[in-house]
Design goal:
Elements: E1 14-19, H1 22-27, E2 37-42, E3 60-68, H2 80-92, E4 99-101, E5 105-108, E6 111-121, E7 124-132, H3 149-153, H4 159-180, H5 183-192, E8 199-202, E9 205-212, E10 218-222, E11 227-230, E12 237-239
Parallel strand pairs: 1-2
Antiparallel strand pairs: 2-3, 3-7, 4-5, 5-6, 6-7, 8-9, 8-12, 9-10, 10-11
Helix pairs in contact: 2-4, 2-5
The protein binds adenosine-5'-triphosphate and biotin.
């Protein structure tokens, strides 16, 4: 598939029917850099910290792409998921206005519509993206958290059209990230940040969400008025329902 403006950074995508996880296939040493691998379904799609990613056939977009580690500025590699999240969110915006939920999710009307997984594997960085496009419903355990573009807009999304637009946005953002680092992304990410100004929980810490800083860390003002910053690592950000 050739996009109007060309594929940018990317080579022609490889589309397959079924894989365990596109992350695993792309990590194989002879899988080429810059070739997006798209699967119509995954049997073992996964998220951060080994969690499962629901990947039913023909409903969502499941894709992974591998880059040489040195392609991105080393000190900013921890911000890659946020930059990719911005590209995904900008793409979802063509259908309905979305937000970025730090550090690796895209939200639509309060629920998760996409997730990003970046993994370092030897000399490579593998970026995985899962987007819920046309799911009519989700399994009961996911239903309160997950949504699809179709559920929010009642409009079917053409997966090839979405992919074309996504690769265009990704190419633009990743080129900029390579050349200029994370700095130019801080403001656009903060503008799209979900729960900004609201009470949240990070690990056991309660506070008001101030935003994302120039290192991609989340910044809270705790109830004692202290400003605290947390790196993405293994911490989770939750809305404080209390
Ligand atoms: P964190 O804030 O730590 O990232 P998270 O709950 O978003 O927390 P992730 O590891 O980012 O966790 O994402 C995996 C989680 O996403 C799963 O545990 C499940 O709750 C949810 N999930 C799985 N498949 C889907 C899907 N197709 N759409 C939306 N959410 C999903
Ligand atoms: C998350 O929210 O934790 C990230 C989810 C990432 C899911 C995508 S789907 C394509 C790629 N293959 C996988 O097994 N995971 C990613």
């Amino acid at each position: 598939m050739q996009t109007k403006r060309g594929l940018g950074l990317f080579k022609e995508p490889l589309v397959v029917e079924l894989v365990d996880s596109t992350q695993n296939r792309v990590k194989e040493p002879d899988f080429p850099f810059f070739v997006p691998l798209v699967a119509r379904a995954q049997t073992a799609g996964r998220g951060r910290l080994g969690r499962r990613w629901y990947s039913p056939p023909g409903k969502g977009l499941y894709l992974s792409v591998k880059f040489p580690k040195g392609f991105f500025p080393e000190g900013d590699l921890g911000c890659l998921s946020l930059v990719v999240g911005l590209s995904v969110s900008r793409t979802v915006d063509a259908y309905a206005l979305s937000g970025i939920k730090w550090p690796n999710d895209v939200y639509l009307r309060g629920k998760k519509v996409a997730g990003i997984l970046t993994e370092v594997s030897g000399p490579s960085v593998v970026v995985g993206i899962g987007v819920n496009l046309n799911e009519e419903r989700f399994p009961p355990e996911l239903a309160p958290l997950a949504t699809s573009i179709y559920r929010e807009t009642q409009q079917r999304v053409d997966p090839d059209e979405f992919l074309e637009l996504l690769l265009e946005n990704l190419s633009e953002d990743l080129r900029r990230f390579r050349e200029e680092g994370f700095k130019p992304f801080v403001e656009p990410i903060n503008r799209k940040l979900v729960w900004k100004g609201r009470r949240v929980l990070v690990d056991n810490e309660r506070g008001r969400l101030l935003g994302v800083n120039s290192k991609g860390w989340i910044v809270l003002r705790t109830c004692y008025g202290k400003v605290k910053e947390f790196p993405a690592g293994e911490v989770s950000l939750r809305a404080d329902r209390i």
